[in-house]
Write a structure and sequence with these properties.
The protein is elongated. It contains nine helices and twelve strands. Strand 7 and strand 8 form a beta hairpin. About 30% of the residues are buried. The chain has about 250 residues and is α/β, with parallel strands linked by helices. The mean pLDDT is about 90. It folds into two domains: about 160 residues, Molybdenum Cofactor Biosythetic Enzyme, Chain A (3-Layer(aba) Sandwich); about 70 residues, Alpha-Beta Plaits, CATH 3.30.70. It has a six-stranded mixed sheet, with helices on both faces.
């Protein structure tokens, strides 16, 4: 892959606790922001339950249509942590003890603490590559273009830095935001015209409520700063013509 290639990724959140609402997903934002910073565009995010057949089917689809797939959750020590076993089956690989992971956790825990439950965390697909965990010891892993990370947000965040030499990114995806004191219907037609003139730029409009008043944030995204500048000047032109107030957020 070259630096100019369009590189995409999918994020797969695995866990009944997310679907039930007991746990709020923050990992999507963390991973997406990190990927954008290294020039990888997130094309899809899915949230699925801890069901083996669903994990296998979803991973096998996503890994074929994306350069990278990042999974979170299901690699801990409890009975419902079945991601590693499911990934093994998705790739038709033997599910076994990873010797290097075993050594890492054996050294991490005090004598007698590396019990059977914790040893479950070293069972992985055969010949998986480890993703080191500087926070709690237990490593994640990757097989080909599928990278499996834990669900605990602080631990996941600490592990992303170690992936930089394992994946190839493109040009960083830049963004610029213009916030306006208006409503979407007031700018919809003008914004559509700007998008038609800048088809290779991603333009999004997002309503917000601030200090008792409605507003709209327009977010422009591209790898090319000059294109963002051109697009923003076109937006500001119609904003000035309509006498819409630009606000700080």
């Amino acid at each position: 892959m070259t630096k100019n290639a369009k590189i995409n990724a999918a994020i797969l959140i695995i866990g009944n606790e997310i679907l039930s609402g007991r746990t709020q997903d923050t990992n999507t934002g963390t991973i997406a922001q990190w990927l954008n910073s290294i020039g990888i565009k997130v094309d899809e995010v899915r949230v699925i339950p801890d069901i083996e057949s669903t994990i296998i089917e979803t991973v096998n689809y996503l890994r074929k249509v994306n350069n990278y797939v990042f999974t979170t959750g299901g690699i801990g020590p409890t009975h419902d942590d079945i991601t590693a076993q499911s990934i093994s089956k998705a790739f038709d690989l033997e599910y076994k003890i990873h010797k290097e992971a075993f050594k890492i956790l054996e050294a991490y825990y005090k004598v007698g603490e590396f019990n059977e439950g914790r040893q479950k965390m070293v069972w992985m697909p055969k010949n998986a590559n480890l993703i080191l965990n500087p926070t709690s010891g237990a490593p994640g892993f990757n097989v080909e273009n599928v990278f499996c990370l834990p669900g605990v947000p602080s631990i996941l965040k600490s592990m992303l830095g170690g992936l930089k030499n394992k994946i190839v990114g493109g040009e960083p995806i830049l963004s610029y935001t213009i916030s306006l004191k208006t409503v979407e219907s007031e700018i919809a037609k003008s914004l559509t015209n700007v998008q038609e003139n800048n088809k290779d730029i991603e333009i999004g409009s997002y309503p917000f409520f601030q200090a008792g008043k409605l507003g709209v944030s327009i977010v422009i995204r591209s790898e090319d700063k000059s294109k963002i500048d051109k697009c923003s000047s076109e937006i500001l032109k119609f904003v000035n013509e309509k006498k819409i107030e630009v606000v700080e957020r």
